[in-house]
Structure formats: structure tokens, C-alpha cells
Amino acid sequence: MNFIIDYEVCACFFMVIITIYFLTQKKLPTIDNTVFSLLLILLSINMIFDIIAVIMQNYKESFSIASHYIINISYYLTQAMSLALFFAYMVLQTRPNGKIPSRLIILMDLPLILFAIFALFTPLTKMLFYIDESGTFLYGDYHFSNYILGLFYIALIPLFFIINRKKISRNVKLAFFAFFGLSLMSQIIQMLLPNYLINSVTSTAGILIFFLKVQSPRNHIDNRTELFNSSAFQYFSNFCRYRNEECSLMVFSLDSLGHIDQIYGVEESRKVISQMASYFTEKYPNCLVFRYNINKFIVLSKKSRFDDTSLYEAYLNFPKKWEINGLSISSSVSIIGLNSKDVKNIDSFFPLIDFTFSRMREKSQGLYQFIDQKALVNFNNFIDVTDALVTAIENKKIEVHYQPIFSIDNQKIFSIEALARLKDKDGIDIPPEIFIDIAEKNGLITKLSELVLENVCLFLNKVDIQSLGISRVSINLSVIQFMQANFCKSILTILEKYQINPQLIGLEIIESVATSSVVDIKKMMNDLIKYGFCFYLDDYGKGYSNIEYITNLPFEYIKIDKSLIASYSTNSTMKLFLDGIIEILKKTNRYVIVEGAETKEHVEILRSLGVKYIQGFYYQVPISLDDMIDLLKK
User: What is the per-residue pLDDT across 280-304, written as a single tens digit (0 to 9) for each?
Assistant: First the structure.
């Protein structure tokens, strides 16, 4: 039989090019990369054997019958092995741990073993093919078994895909079905036109589709540094976790890196980042290095374990300056270390890193920190509180408690403060300073404040507070909410919905809001005052305690922080400060409210200082809406 190998030679050329390119590229050390490499090598060898077999047929007199058998058997075996290996590769796409169940191994290997025995005994049985005395290659009576084997694997994979469809990515599905269609078509054509060798063409086309859509090493490479990118880190971390393989990591954060583009230009920035990438790969040759984002790099080791000493040395040795074209560019670095076994899953890794870096900056804990069990507990608490907060906001289950502000003169309620309350999944109260901080960081504070305001509106609809001599109910605002351009409109919309007069609402803002921009804050406050709102400066004495904000901004009430009265009797400096600030505030015609009055002694001290309004546990702890209504009725 005369075989036409033009298509085979062309396909082989491209397959060898793809194989060489893939093998020489930087790749993650994962099972699917290894199997894909073996598959490429096996397919290339199979095509080479096929071409050699055809050439030997053209010059059959020059070769012994034994050599004909060796080459052709090698061709059939490598073809069968390629089919089995491709099935194994497809199975791995549904197995993040890179482990194939034993039943699938049997299903994959048994037909291959039987066919291999069948092929190896062909010189004796002549059932698959045979070589006559002249050296001519001829099909045996059972040559069709070769096609049956191919169709078996081609049909088995779609069945496997259907069963595991939820575990397979969209790219893998698209690549496979394109490959499946090509392979099925080529098998049919090959059976109808056996002298045209076209199986290799479709194999090459299918492999090329997989290479481009699924297995290209460039999918996991950062273009600016040639390091592995964040998706590579996520993929490899999942791979290690599923295999229960422990990794040790260091995360480098270069805080100034994000500004280099603006200061020195894109080209200089690219050179600096390239230098840093080279530093990491040279400094940690036995580790995998990833570029997590614009200013964070991750060094991952499976062989050694990082600890506090490793972090200290890494921080100490990290270059403080980078020389680029005569420019000396400074860089500061912070480093976090951790072990993968301490992280529940890869989805919590990135929030954990950001959380830890944020806490390091806030608490000035140093420029390097190994994440220990205490840090993990803090992070898990952060996640639990965030989940509780999100759930409560989505379901409108934020509780609002009310605490009265009393007038010392007549011992009656003067005004009321509304306070948000949150419980965890076990029904335990979460301190407000914790969940409010998280709400601000996660962008949930606006929705939280709106829910509090709506609760206050419901309260005001149930109780005519003015008939009871109560001036208003106050709510707390964060700096984020207060600085929003549509804040005035949003708060008025809620009041209009419940038909509440703005004069019944007080707005409490902390001193840090006032430090943002006195001019902008003053304009916003004056706009809201025109509608009838009044303002409280909350927690005065806790922060900067700058008298400028009191004199320049239209606060009607100044609430002195509870820390001042708590240490009044034991701290002479605090006593002088509280005495002085109350005297000054009286002269500015502001009403003074002192928070934290918890004992009779506190009340008597404040009475002696001429304070008229007190808020604290001595009079009343914060209570629920229903309890507040009952209290007012009494």
C-alpha cells in the first residue's frame, strides 16, 4: 500500500516546534504540566515513527523485515500510549490534587495493555499487520482494532466530561470539543482512505488548541517581570493544598513601587521592576517567585520553612536603593511570612495578607511579621465579623439601641443617641468599635448608617418625643459617609419617606471628620443646618482636641469623651484639662455633653463643673427600641 505522508510531515514539523517551545518555557511544577509535556513528546515520537515507517516502505529492500516490525510496532504502541495519556490529561482537569482514582487508572490502562500485547505478538500472529518476504507492509485481519482503541478513548472522554461537567472550566470544555470533533472526523476519514495519513494533522491541531486555550505557560507569566503571576500563585497554591503539601511563603510589599510610574516614567519603572524580579530569582533560586500585584511579590518554598529569622534577614538584605541610568531610586519594603497549612483555603489568603499589612501599618508593629496563631485568630475574627455584618445588612437585621442624654438640672431626658448593635452567629454582642471599623473598610458604612436612620424614623413615628420635652435623636456618621457628594440627598430621601422633620435629627461626627477639610466640612454642615439638622462633635478629647474645629465649625453640641471623666480623680493632668476645656466651651456658647458618667461621683464632679448634660451608664445603659418606648411612657 502506498501511503501519502505529506500531511504527516507538515504536522510533525509543527508538533516538534510546539513541543520544543513548551519544554523550554518557564512552567509551574504541576502534574498536568508534566503530563502535557510527556504527551507532546510522545505525539512527536509517534509521528516520527510513522514517517520513518513510510520511508522504509519506499525503500523496503534496504531494510530487514525485523527493522520494519520494530518501527511499525513502535508506531502503534506510541499512538496507543498517546491516546491513554490524553485521557489521563483530561482526567487531571477535574482533579486539582493531580491524583487519578484507581478505577480510572484501570479503565485507562487495561485497553492499552491488551493492545500492547496484541501489537507485540503481531510478528507471530499477523493479526494487526504483517511484513511479507519483500518487506511490504500489509494490514492484518484485525487491524481495525487500532481504530476501535482510538474510538474507545475518544468516546470515553466525553462521557467522563458529562459526569464531571461542573468541575471543568469553560476553556477546557471548548478546547476538548474542538479536539473531539477533529479527532472523530479524522478517524472516519482514515478508515475510508487508509493510504492518507491525516490523524497527525488533527492531533496537532487539537493539541495546538489545548496549548493556546488551556496549557500555555504564558497564561501564568507576568509580562513585565517574567515571574509567575497572581493566577499562577492561586493555581499552584490550590494544587499544593489538595495534595496536602505544605509550603512556606514570604510576601514582600514595596509601598513606593506604585508611584514610580508617575515620578520616573513607565520605562524607568519597568527597569526597576525587572531589577527587583532578578533580585528575587537570584536570591531565592530554589523557590518559586510570583508577582502578586503591582507592588507585592511572593516567594514560595516547598523545601525549607521560613521563620522570624528568615524574615529579618530578608528585610535586612533587601536593597534600599536601585540604580537605573544614573538615577538612585529608593524603595521601602514590608514582609509577611506564613505557612500554607495555617491558611484554610486560597480564597482567604489574599484577604489575610491585606489584613495583616493593614494592621502592621495601623499598629506600627514593625516592617516584618510572621503570621502566628494569634494573628490568624484576629483574622478569622475579622472574617466572622464581616460575614455577620454583611448578613445583618442584607437581611436588615441591624439592631439599634437607644441611650438617653440627661439634663442634670431637671433629671429628665434631654435627647437620645441611636447606637448600632451587631451580634455574631452565636448571638454574642460584637463591640461597636470593631464592626464599625470593618464597615468603613469594606464600604458597608453607608448602608449601615441608613438602616440606623430608618430605625430612628420608625421610633419617631411611634413616639412624639417633643411632647415629652426631648429635643431630638442623634445618629453617628463616619468620615466616609459624611464626605459623599450625595449624602445630603440620601438622608433627606429617607426622612421624606417616613415624613420625619429634620429638626428631630442630630448628626454626630468625630473629630477626624473635621480634620479632613474645614472648608468642605463647613459647607456641608451649613447646607444640612438649613434643613433643620443640628451637629454634635463626638469624642472630643480623644483625638487632636483642636479648639479650631469648635470655633470654625457650626457644632451646637460638644460631647466630651468618656476617657476624660474616667481618669479625673486619679490623673491631675487630666483634671486640669477637663476643667479648662469645659470652661472654654462655656464661653463659646456651645452645649457640653460629657459621656461615660458611670458613678454618682462622676455626676457630682460634672455638676460642680457646671456641666448640664450627661450621658452614661449611671443613668441608663443603651436599650432596645421597645424598651426605650416603655421607658418614655413611664
Answer: 999 999 999 999 888 889 999 988 8
